[in-house]
């Protein structure tokens, strides 16, 4: 059966007011990772208005999976994430966050609105018999944060087995450095492995006027930091993608007291698994500086998301679905995304959807905002990709 839908761009634009309404409602009521109760209940309530969908709630936490089938064919998954960030919003919109210290500053509110719009058109097309196969809409919790086990929402949803039948998968991410009407794509590694580390340097504290009687952890850290930063440019192949950054250094309570310990936290980003392992090993070796200077240390490494590897064939479907939208081929940068857990086992790809304003707002920024004209483009590309993949078979 022919699944192409030549009026998909027009039908997506006709959803504009509803897409904006959904997005602003989610933005007004953000919830942190693993706390998306109101968000998931709102999504489930909207989906149950569409009787052809089978709606499953509390999948891997607060996750929602909505499946719709017409005839025989492959199973395609479309994913949006639901959680917000621990950021105090500084915008002055009428729909600004009502939850102090919590904000949708990464576009997840838009992701959910786009996927709900996709559900609306999917339901209409199922009623008309316009496609063959199954589409699963995945509203995923906890993309921004992992739990005490180091597991994000993607991991927990995969562990339920509810996604085992998915053969191909597509996700989107809002992109404030691209304008509305632009779609950024990339084959292969496109976002980074993410490993976080923390170090405690142990010395012995004392009076700042008698440094000869102490083992100063701040002095040790001054040598360690330079060595760690040099890993980026001197210990790695410059043609490889990998970086180590320090985000937190904390020690001491007063200027005239040398502390007995120093806390240091950072992150390692890479595209290749071999680079990931090399940087972790170099980190461990570099820490011998501390023992050489008379101190000791504790190192903790939290292995995070793997690199996002986009499937070439899935990207072909995305590019076809984009139609007249402007396509830009470029990696997405050194950020990380737990959509990568899906693409480790399921052929899939993520595209970045342009939503930039005249004054660009960065992701995770307290005044982050987006051009809502991009929302129908998201529906067009997401649903169009699903139809392309259904048409091509398993």
Automatic annotation (TrEMBL):
Gene3D superfamilies: 3.30.70.360, Zn peptidases (3.40.630.10)
Coiled-coil residues: none
Record-annotated Peptidase M20 dimerisation domain positions: 196-287
Highest taxon above the source species: Bacteria
Database matches in SUPFAM superfamilies: Bacterial exopeptidase dimerisation domain, Zn-dependent exopeptidases
Residues spanning the membrane: none
NCBIfam families, per the entry: amidohydrolases (TIGR01891)
Name of this protein: Amidohydrolase
